[in-house]
Design goal:
Elements lengths: L13 H10 L5 E4 L8 H6 L4 E5 L5 H7 L5 H18 L5 E5 L10 H7 L1 E3 L7 E3 L16 H4 L2 E2 L4 E3 L14 E2 L12 H8 L35 H11 L6 H8 L2
Parallel strand pairs: 1-2, 2-3
Antiparallel strand pairs: 4-5, 6-7, 7-8
Helix pairs in contact: 8-9
Length: 260
């Protein structure tokens, strides 16, 4: 995940970092406002980036700039067109582009026009249009858990290892380990990682019965909703597989993978 703590497109080396990750067969993604004037769309297509989340919180300039201060919706849309055009020229189907619309009281009424009025040409058919989805995630029942602890690892510019994109707080120790070029160890299975994961196991004793040097791991008192509901549903999975490689899987296979 080439994002967090800043705008990844401002770093001219980001495409190179993505190419390096792809050499290790890693899936790659980033989230961006795409509100940058220097944007090399071809570099991001050729990097092998799998997934790009676009944070665009409005369908008109007046509403968009209330949260995205000094941002230009016209510039963002122009960069999207550049990105889709570069993807079309390359013949690639990635990165999959996802529109993330952060809803507030001042912009919720623009969710429908965002979903249906902004269209961009699809790379696999000149006659059809690719609509960037702004549908809210369904709040479906799920067993409590946190995918961050099992699917991701976050490292900041100082080499601190964190389990998710939340920022460390004085009363919640979120730094699980420290990257060291000499002896990094197993950063994904540090003692704090294993300790935090254990709190989603039914057999784990009460936090009061456990002692660990330093403050309590952040996950013990996490106030995010990820513990009670997933942040992805079957529709998102089906959309991803279809967009990444339409026709690769049969309808029966897609149904099996996305009907949970």
């Amino acid at each position: 995940m080439f994002c967090n703590y800043g705008e990844p497109l401002l770093n001219v080396n980001t495409p190179r970092f993505i190419r390096t990750a792809k050499r290790y067969l890693a899936q790659t993604m980033l989230a961006t406002s795409l509100s940058v004037r220097r944007f090399d769309a071809d570099a991001y297509i050729e990097s092998g980036l799998d997934y790009m989340v676009l944070s665009i919180d409005g369908a008109s300039q007046a509403v968009y700039e209330r949260f995205r201060k000094k941002g230009s919706l016209e510039l963002v849309c122009d960069n999207i067109r550049k990105l889709v055009a570069a993807r079309q020229r390359s013949g690639k189907r990635t990165p999959v582009i996802s529109w993330q619309f952060l809803a507030f009281r001042h912009n919720w009424q623009e969710i429908p026009p965002a979903a249906f009025e902004h269209e961009f040409e699809a790379p696999w058919s000149g006659a059809s249009a690719e609509r960037l989805s702004a549908d809210p995630v369904s709040n479906v029942p799920a067993t409590p858990g946190c995918h961050w602890l099992y699917k991701n690892i976050v490292m900041d510019a100082n080499g601190r290892i964190l389990p998710c994109c939340a920022s460390p707080a004085p009363d919640k120790e979120l730094v699980f380990s420290q990257f060291d070029d000499v002896d990094a160890g197993d950063l994904f299975n540090s003692e704090r990682h294993k300790f935090a994961r254990s709190f989603f196991a039914e057999t784990h004793p009460s936090v009061n019965e456990i002692t660990l040097s330093g403050p309590e791991p952040f996950c013990v008192k996490c106030n995010w909703e990820s513990k009670t509901r997933p942040d992805i549903n079957g529709q998102h999975i089906r959309q991803y597989f279809w967009a990444a490689s339409p026709g690769l899987m049969s309808d029966e296979t897609l149904e099996l993978l996305s009907s949970w």
